[in-house]
Every structure is written in structure tokens, then in C-alpha cells.
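Is this the right way to post C-alpha cells for a design question? Let me know if I should format differently. Anyway, here goes:
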């Protein structure tokens, strides 16, 4: 049944009992956005802006950036676009933005932290986003990666709002999940990056194959942080999505919905599988599966318990 639904998936995604759960796509350029729209993504949930500039020695001009961002806004053709400011550093070093050598780059100057050394880089990027929005008539949401404190969220939100854009932050550091209520006093949405959130919650390098069991997105501690952030969003009526790889696993996507997240964003080829699976489950089953996965002692048991609830018959 799920296979038949997958072949015919055309969005928008809802659970079987009719709860809308937008399934968006992770993209890096206009062409990828066109493919995402063709795959029936309801928009872009994560536009990774740094990927276009890997290997570049010099900062791209505001005009070059504006053209690149406008290409994505145009291709999205009125659908939601969540643009992430440069996530430079660690696994994505940018020569013009990040320090050449750090002992622990994953714990170093990466993401929003680059703005401590060079606030102009962030301001120029936000100017470019605002210009691209003006040219295309788009209303992008703009979020920062690697935020760790309420103060960082407040400072970022002020810069984004000053340009008439909608601010949010990624939940990649456990501190932000724990203080999500206070972060949400400053921003309009949260987007949970499960790839980094699991790395930082389990203290295990996301690039280490030896530690893949620890960074498994079914880890109950990761799911508990997702639940904390989603509950904070519910309390104030602000969206809390997931844009890490966890959202690409159709079963886990149902669990995330059960934990309270309001949208999912994954690679374009995964959109149909997630949307098709959501159409086979009711929200109460997602909630039951989420409770079972949270209560499990390890990822394997959690997945089995969730599967038993979600895939009946
Ligand atoms: C994440 O950390 O989950 C995320 C979506 O960002 P990236 O994979 O680009 O670090
Ligand atoms: Mg990340």
C-alpha cells in the first residue's frame, strides 16, 4: 500500500486523519529547487547557502549572493523558503570565513560564531537575502546555524527583522533545545538539525563511522530534545520543523510528527516516501510510536517499537 501511495505522491502531505505536515526539501541552488518542486516538495525547508561557496578564496559579492538566492526564490515560485545563513566551519570550511586551524573544529568557530570575528560577513549576506527577496517578491524565512544561547538568537533576530525578513534559528546545540521557550521569545520559528544535534547531544563526531550507533537519529536522548523543542513551539504557536537526515526516514518522520514537530524537510528524492508514509498513519498512532521510541533504551529497540505501532497488518 505504501509503495502504491509513493508512486502516486503529489502532495501536500497530510496524515491519514487529515493533519497537514508540510514536507519540504533541502536544497543548495535553483536547479535543486526545481527538482524539489517537481518531486512535490511544498517548499524549501533548508537552503544550505554555504555549499555554493566551498573552495572559494574570497567572499562573494553581495550582488553575486543576491543572484544565487534569487534563483532559489524564483524556482520555489511562491512556496516557503527557509534560507540558512552561511554554516561555515567544521565539516564545511570556507576559506574566507573560518580560521585555518582549530584543534576541535566541530566545537570551534563555525556557523553563527563566524559573526563574532566578522559581523560584516553576516550583515552582507543578510543584505543580499533582502535584495533577492525584493527582486523576486519572495518572503524568505532566514535562520542561523549553530546557535547556542538566547543572546545569540536575539542578536540574530534583530539583524534579520531590521531587513524585513522572518528570523529563526536552528536547534543543533542541546543548549538551545533546553531553552527553546526563551529562544522563541525572540524568533518566529525553530528548525531542528538532527545531524548536528545528535553529534552534540551524544558527544560523537557525525563523520565517524565507528560512532554511527551513537549518532543514530533514533537515539532516545535525541528524540527527547526534539520533543522539548517541539513542545516549546506548541506553547506559543510557532512552527518547529526538522531539517536533518532524520526527516528522510519515513518511519522516523512519523515519530517526529508524534513528538510535535510541524514540518519536515529532507533531500528531494526522499520527499515522496515520507509524504506517502504519513498518508498511511493517524496522528494518535504517531504519538503512540513517539512515546514508544522515547521510552526505548536504544535506537534498535525504539525503531522496532515504533514500527510495530505504525506498520500494522
Ligand atoms: C543538521 O545539522 O542536521 C543540518 C541539517 O545541517 P547540516 O547537515 O548542513 O550541518
Ligand atoms: Mg548542521
Amino acid at each position: 500500500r505504501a509503495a502504491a501511495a509513493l508512486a502516486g505522491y503529489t502532495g501536500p502531505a497530510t496524515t491519514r486523519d487529515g493533519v497537514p505536515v508540510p514536507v519540504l526539501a533541502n536544497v543548495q541552488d535553483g536547479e535543486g529547487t526545481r527538482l524539489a518542486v517537481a518531486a512535490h516538495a511544498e517548499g524549501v525547508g533548508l537552503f544550505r547557502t554555504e555549499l555554493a561557496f566551498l573552495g572559494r578564496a574570497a567572499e562573494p559579492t553581495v550582488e553575486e549572493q543576491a543572484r544565487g538566492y534569487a534563483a532559489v526564490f524564483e524556482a520555489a515560485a511562491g512556496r516557503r523558503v527557509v534560507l540558512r545563513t552561511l554554516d561555515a566551519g567544521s565539516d564545511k570550511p570556507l576559506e574566507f570565513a573560518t580560521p585555518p586551524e582549530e584543534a576541535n573544529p566541530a566545537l570551534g568557530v563555525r556557523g553563527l560564531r563566524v559573526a563574532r570575528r566578522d559581523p560584516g560577513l553576516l550583515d552582507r549576506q543578510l543584505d543580499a537575502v533582502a535584495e533577492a527577496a525584493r527582486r523576486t517578491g519572495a518572503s524568505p524565512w532566514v535562520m542561523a546555524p549553530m546557535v547556542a544561547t538566547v543572546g545569540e538568537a536575539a542578536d540574530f533576530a534583530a539583524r534579520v527583522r531590521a531587513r524585513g525578513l522572518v528570523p529563526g534559528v536552528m536547534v543543533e546545540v542541546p543548549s538551545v533545545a533546553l531553552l527553546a521557550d526563551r529562544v522563541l521569545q525572540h524568533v518566529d520559528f525553530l528548525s531542528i538539525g538532527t545531524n548536528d544535534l545528535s553529534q552534540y547531544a551524544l558527544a560523537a563526531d557525525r563523520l565517524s563511522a565507528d560512532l554511527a550507533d551513537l549518532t543514530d537519529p533514533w537515539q532516545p536522548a535525541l528524540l527527547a530534545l526534539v520533543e522539548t523543542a517541539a513542545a516549546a513551539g506548541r506553547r506559543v504557536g510557532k512552527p518547529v520543523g526538522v531539517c536533518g537526515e532524520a526527516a528522510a526516514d519515513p518511519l522516523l518522520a512519523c515519530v517526529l510528527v508524534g513528538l510535535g514537530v510541524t514540518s519536515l524537510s529532507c533531500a528531494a528524492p526522499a520527499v515522496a516516501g515520507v509524504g506517502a508514509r504519513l498518508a498511511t498513519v493517524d496522528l494518535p498512532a504517531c504519538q503512540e510510536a513517539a512515546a514508544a521510541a522515547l521510552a526505548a533504551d536504544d535506537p534498535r529497540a525504539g525503531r522496532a517499537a515504533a514500527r510495530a505501532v505504525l506498520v500494522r497488518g
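Format looks fine. Someone answered above. Worth noting: Residues 145, 172, 193, 195-196 surround magnesium ion (ligand 2) (CB under 6 Å). Residues 119-136 form the longest helix (18 residues).
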